[in-house]
Amino acid sequence: MTWVRLDDGFADHPKLEQISDYAFRLHVSAMCWSSRRGTDGRISKRDLYTLASRLVSFEGNPLDLATELTDFELWHTTEYGYWFPLRTRHNPAEKTHHETREHRKHRRIVLSRDGYKCRYCTRREFLTLDHIVPPSKGGSHDPTNLVTACRSCNSRKGSRTPQSASMPLLPIEVSS
Ligand SMILES: [Zn+2]
Q1: 123 alpha carbon to ligand 1 midpoint, in Å?
Q2: CATH code assigned to 94-157
Q3: What is the pLDDT along the chain (176 residues), one digit of tens a residue?
Q4: DSSP readout, 77-137?
Q5: What residue spans define the domains of the chain?
Q6: How far away, in angstroms, is 129 Cα from ligand 1 center?
Q7: What's the 8 CA to ligand 1 centre distance in angstroms?
């Protein structure tokens, strides 16, 4: 499931204030329709008729509503029908689930690579994952940017790089 993003000034947008209620409703349902089907803001002529047929008490010509939307440059005409910029976002609940699974996978990889020891003090307890370059400074969530760190080293380092925290990374011990 994806979410359509509407900012809280959406209804007050100068362009939207000037269009008819039917066109406004058509635009909102077109956004949901396109997001649900993953068409990325593309609405075919057929989609237009389907959407217009769902507008309660609308008896006019769907093409007039589309013209209204293109006149105000909310929609653009294309060879297949219409297009409008659609802002979507994945359902945060799904993203969290995915991130948790990813995090667990990375945790296994990183802890085993680092021999289940803190890379700052070699402690073996309360192990967490630390971003070498913090995400706030553009660091990735990839295992190459992750190291094993005990809870106290991790909180001491905070959102700093090993250099700026004066906490050099210890090399990975290779067991022979
Ligand atoms: Zn430590």
Answers
A1: 5
A2: 1.10.30.50
A3: 677 777 777 777 777 778 899 999 999 999 999 888 888 889 999 999 999 999 989 999 999 999 999 988 889 998 889 999 887 665 555 555 566 778 888 999 999 999 999 999 999 998 989 999 988 888 888 899 999 999 999 999 988 999 999 999 999 876 65
A4: E-SSEEE----EEE-HHHHHHHHHHHHHHHHHHHHHHTTTS-TTT---SSEEEEESS-GGG
A5: 10-83, 94-157
A6: 11
A7: 45
Ligand 1 centroid from CA 32, angstroms: 49
Centroid of ligand 1 to alpha carbon of 156 (angstroms): 9
Residue (of 126, 16, 153) closest to 75 by Cα position: 16
Beta carbons of 43 and 34 less than 8 angstroms apart: yes
**Ligand 1 centre distance from Cα of residue 137 (Å):** 22
